[in-house]
């Protein structure tokens, strides 16, 4: 049992109801909730003074905070976590929202990247937050690899996959490369790559080079090794983070400091090179996870919350993720099922298209 769950069980009914109503009121309006308004909505008739005393006790426990001296209370990050874990009532996806999400995946002529882009736009529109969609890596077998020299300092590796997908990646080749060494490197890789995915090839490449060290020219070997570096160090351009709805966050900001925090979030999103971190957030389970404020290691400076769910291919392997990021006063009960539904739908779509 978590500390929050234990604390909830130890609360009496009145304290639990005051806490729940403060959090729900704050999530609905974004404003502090006062004792006078609560006294009119409580199940049992209690005075505003009694409710103030309960609020003070909850504040002492670190669950509520008073942003101004005479104002009402808002939940702390700890309080929000306890509410999400123990009191959150998750609804179902509204028919209108379901239809909007379904409509994005109805165009069978679009490629996966375009469809995921549409999913992100729909998700941000429905939730009024910013949507994050991590598209899957391209895992089709490799058909052909070629190195193309552009200048002494620039080269291109062209990857042609069995399903017709083509990727071009720029890199800086080792000094002294010649057309013949490039052909030899490409021939060496093509002999190893046939029928294997990029991940398969990358896993065994170092051993393959060692095993065939005598058969391949030094220059060609250096070129192959530099190609491996491109694939390992941020080279997986097929795996990308699609962000939509940034303007929604700015519209929701009411204070100057909130605008500054959201700009910090945008900077985080723009700088994200290693987006594998985003996927790692989902690896503790195959359901929806909620990260509140500083629990969210990717965007902790922004004071935001992230609701995220992985999606899987037909083999139940996690290949991407879908999420919504917004202020900590997100409507969690509504957004959690939307993210869950979208992730399941995307997983089915990707599996049907054989891209996972």
Short characterization:
The protein has 356 residues and is α+β, with helices and mostly antiparallel strands. The protein is built from 14 helices and 10 strands.
Describe this structure in words.
There is one protein chain. The protein is 48% helix and 17% strand. The chain contains 14 helices and ten strands. The protein has helices spanning 3-10, 13-29, 35-39, 48-60, 77-86, 95-104, 112-127, 179-193, 198-211, 218-232, 246-252, 256-271, 276-280, 332-352; strands at residues 64-65, 74-75, 130-134, 142-151, 154-161, 166-171, 241-244, 289-292, 304-312, 318-327. The protein has a five-stranded antiparallel β-sheet with strand order 7-3-10-9-8. It has a three-stranded antiparallel β-sheet with strand order 4-5-6. Strand 1 and strand 2 form a beta hairpin. It is elongated, with a radius of gyration of 26 Å. Mean pLDDT is 79; it is low at 232-239.
CATH fold-type name of the largest domain: Beta-Lactamase
- By DSSP, the count of extended strands is 10
Major beta-sheet overview: 5 strands, antiparallel
Radius of gyration: 26 Å
The structure class reads alpha+beta
Tell me the β content.
15-25%
Strand order of the largest sheet: 7-3-10-9-8
User: How many domain modules?
Assistant: 3
Overall form: elongated
Head-to-tail CA distance between termini: 37 Å
Number of helix segments?
A: 14
Fourth-level CATH superfamily of the largest domain: GAF domain
Residue share in helices?
A: 40-55%
| Highest-level CATH class of the largest domain | Alpha Beta
Mean of all residue-level pLDDT scores: 79
Runs in which pLDDT lies below 50 for 5 or more consecutive residues are 232-239
């Amino acid at each position: 049992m978590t500390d929050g769950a234990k604390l909830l069980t130890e609360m009496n009914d009145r304290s639990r109801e005051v806490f729940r109503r403060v959090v729900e009121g704050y999530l609905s309006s974004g404003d502090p909730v006062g004792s006078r308004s609560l006294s009119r909505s409580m199940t049992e008739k209690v005075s505003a003074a009694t409710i103030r005393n309960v609020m003070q006790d909850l504040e002492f426990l670190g669950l509520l905070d008073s942003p101004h001296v005479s104002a009402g209370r808002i939940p702390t990050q700890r309080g929000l976590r306890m509410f999400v874990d123990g009191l959150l009532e998750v609804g179902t996806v509204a028919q209108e929202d379901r239809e909007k999400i379904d409509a994005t995946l109805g165009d069978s002529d679009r490629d996966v990247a375009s469809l995921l882009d549409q999913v992100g736009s729909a998700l941000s529109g429905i939730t009024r937050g910013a949507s994050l969609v991590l598209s899957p890596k391209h895992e089709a077998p490799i058909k052909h690899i070629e190195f193309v020299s552009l200048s002494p300092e620039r080269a291109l590796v062209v990857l042609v996959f069995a399903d017709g997908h083509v990727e071009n990646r720029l890199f800086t080749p080792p000094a002294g490369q010649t057309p013949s060494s490039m052909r030899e490197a490409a021939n060496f890789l093509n002999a190893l790559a046939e029928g294997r995915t990029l991940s398969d090839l990358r896993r065994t490449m170092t051993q393959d080079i060692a095993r065939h060290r005598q058969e391949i020219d030094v220059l060609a070997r250096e070129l192959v090794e530099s190609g491996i570096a491109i694939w390992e160090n941020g080279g997986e351009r097929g795996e990308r983070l699609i962000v939509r709805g940034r303007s929604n966050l700015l519209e929701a900001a009411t204070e100057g400091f909130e605008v500054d925090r959201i700009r910090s979030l945008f900077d985080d999103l723009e700088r994200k090179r290693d987006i594998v971190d985003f996927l790692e957030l989902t690896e503790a389970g195959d359901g929806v996870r909620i990260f509140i404020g500083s629990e969210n290691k990717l965007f902790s400076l922004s004071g935001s919350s992230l609701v995220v769910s992985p999606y899987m291919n037909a083999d139940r392997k996690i290949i991407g993720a879908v999420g919504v990021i917004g202020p900590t006063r997100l409507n969690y009960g509504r957004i959690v099922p939307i993210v869950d539904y979208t992730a399941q739908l995307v997983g089915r779509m990707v599996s049907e298209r054989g891209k996972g």
